[in-house]
Model the fold of this input.
Amino acid sequence: MAKPGKRMRSAREKVDPDIKVSIGEAVRLVKENATAKFDETIEISLNLNVDPRHADQNVRGVVSLPNGTGKDVRIAVFAKDDKAEEALAAGADIVGAEDLAEKVQNGEINFDRVIATPDMMPVVGRLGKVLGPRGLMPNPKLGSVTNDVTAAVTNAKSGEVQFRVEKTGIVHAGIGKASFSEDQIRQNLDAFLNAILRVKPSGVKGSYVNRVALTSTMGPGVRFDVADIGSSTQEAAE
Done:
């Protein structure tokens, strides 16, 4: 196993993996330890007490982060005629119909998010085996199957984050960049945690969030107290 570099060893010395800190301290430590030569992504990971094998416990949702993600999101829109022109005017990177579907089938996936108008879903549906495993399949519940393509593209470009629990009960997402201020990261974090709490399945028994940690792309994870989540999101609401 490769020996950790000097930068990583220094970062790990500041973080005790067995100690849970406050949310504010976690944000401070993660930002302080993001010392790579590029603008690292700030990421959150939650282990939820859910069983995704049951449809009523498949945690999924979307949230608009108040300070955006700091990432340039490439948007593909399946639309025709006036809706295609509307998507381009709204800032979509790729717009098409059957021609776009053919490119996707051939492995040309040069986008991070897919939006489709309802009339294009028969075409998009045939791409399920390609888009589904990548988490790119449009979904009306997430606002990505809509006739209001202007709003959908604008929201996606401005910092909208989709999340979905994995088979192991893990939810993770990027919520900003290391160049963000601590306040900006905290605001985005609170918005994301609020979104997770809002979609808590009614059938969950006991605690909903088992463990939660914040990290940067190249930094060590920092665990914070699950009990802190409720008070944090309540403060954000106020």
